[in-house]
Each structure stands twice: as C-alpha cells, then as structure tokens.
Known about the structure:
By secondary structure, the protein is an alpha/beta fold. About 45% of the residues lie in helices and about 15% in strands.
Amino acid sequence: MRKELKKLVQALTAPLAPLVWRARPAPRLLVLMYHRVLPERHPDRAYEQPGMYVSPETLALHVEILKRHFEIVHLDEWARKAVDRERLPRLACALTFDDGWRDNFDYAFPVLRAQSVPATIYLLSDLVGTRYSFWPNKLARLLGDARNNTYRARWPQWLGQVLTDVGVSAGARLPIPMQYIDAAIGRCKVLYPDAEITELVSAIATAGQEAVGDDRDLMNWDEIRRMAEGGKIRFGSHTRRHTRLEARVPLSALQDEICVSRTLIEQQLQVSVTSFCYPNGDHCPAAVDLVRTAYATAVTTQRGWNRAGTDTYLLKRVGVHEDVSSSPSAFLSRLLLA
Ligand SMILES: [Zn+2]
C-alpha cells in the first residue's frame, strides 16, 4: 500500500518538476552521484547496498530525460565559468561516478558514449585494477551469505553488537534482509575509523566468501585510458584508498591521500586532474584546505543543487539509484525533492 501511495505521489509531482526548475532563480547546477551500473542479472546485485547501483537501462533513461531539461556539462568547466563569472546555462547537470568500478567501463561507458554526454569518474589511485572490495561490500557479502546459525556463531562479538544495535537479534531469522545489512554498514561507519573496520571485516571474511563474485572489482588503467579518449569522460581523485577524511586522520595522511593520489592519476593518464571527491562525503576543515591547494572542484554527498556562488570545493550532489529512480516519474520527483 505504501508503495502504491509513493507511486501516486511521484506520478502527481513529476510533471511539476520542470515547471518548478524554470521558476527557481538561475543559473543552477545539478550534480548527480552514481556508483555502480549493474544489469538486473549481475551476481553482484545480490550483495550490493540498494543505494549503490542503477541498471544500464535506468542510466540511459536518466540521460534521455536530463537532455530534455538540462545542458549536460563537465563539472569542472561549469565551475571554472562560475569562478570567472562567465555566462552559465540556466539549468546545467553534471554526471559523476564514484570509486571507479569495473562495471562503469562495462555498462556505463556504452550508454554515455552512445548518448555522447560528459561525465566525471572519481578514482582511487592505489586500487585501480585490483580485486579489492570495499569493506562495506565484504561485510554485505558476509552477512548476506549467512544462511544458518553455525555460520553466525563464528562472528566476533563486535559484529553481534553492531547487529543488535540495528535491530537484528542473535535469534533473528536468516538470511538477514538487505535493509538491516545497510543499517549495519552505517552503524560501523559511525563506530570505527576506516583502517580499523577494514581489518575487522577482513579478519572474518573467509577464503570461501572472498571468492564470491570477487573477480576484479575496479577498472584498470587500460579501461580508464580508453574511456578518457576523446575527452568526454574525465577522471578525478577519490583519494588513494578511500580513506574517510575525518578530523581524526593525521595531517600527513590527509596530504598523502589528497595530493599524492592526484599525481599518481596524472602520471598514468598524462592529463591534469582538477576534480576531487570526498570519500563517504566526509571532509574535515584541514582536508578541505588541502583540496583547495590541489584541485579546482570537489564534490560532497550533501544533497542539493548548486548556484553560481556555491563554494566549488563543497559542491552538493543528488544520489540516484535504482530503487528511487527507475521510472521517469520516480526520477523526476527525486530531483524535484532534492
Ligand atoms: Zn566512494
């Protein structure tokens, strides 16, 4: 029933979206945040957080709708014009993809190329081309694979506590539904710094689980270079290892993650790297200061639109994923309510 009601609200609000956009003060920039692009039958969909993926068909639908209402631009070009006070399109939109997933090459690239639209992909310089899975993915696989209690008995106490915190009791039925796995990942982000949670999760991920769908997760440099040809798709930095740039991270580590990642990507691609993306959206003041010295733009995960006067180092974005944007009305109302 709630689903039906949601659909009805979307159907009623969607036609208003273009009218509202035109009525609001201009110019404006909408930056969309994508992560993975996975077809319906892709095995990784079973282990991925709902907020992390769209299907290739949904991405194509988005581009088609966006082209009707927006000028699709390169993020850094829009920002340069805004800083130089040059004329900006009334309604501009920029597409961004975080992490550099291999599926971006396999499934997003064909859509972007066919529609000839610009996009920016944020890479983890040290993890390009690796089988590395992020700890949230490992944890999601680990929890999603649990089908019996013998398996669950091997989990350490900290994980039992995290699950209790999000409402999964020790006797709860298995497998654990994805919304609870999602909540457990969120809880871990609050409780543990990156280095610690990465180690904790690795310690319980058995060899068997590591093998599940764990063929190379991230694009390699060859794929990145092929996407970069022609200049429509550009690459920015998302740090070296996806370290969240929180106040507890020492300055030397911030410097390393922010500045060295740029040099490493530039060496590989032989183009200058001007845009940055804060992992998980976390940005302590020291990190923002460093980003200002090394880049021209940076994107956050803070939801909203940008104006000509918005700080180009704290650009807002709107996350779009399959469960909230797979139909035209769902997509339009998502953007309207951002
Ligand atoms: Zn990321």
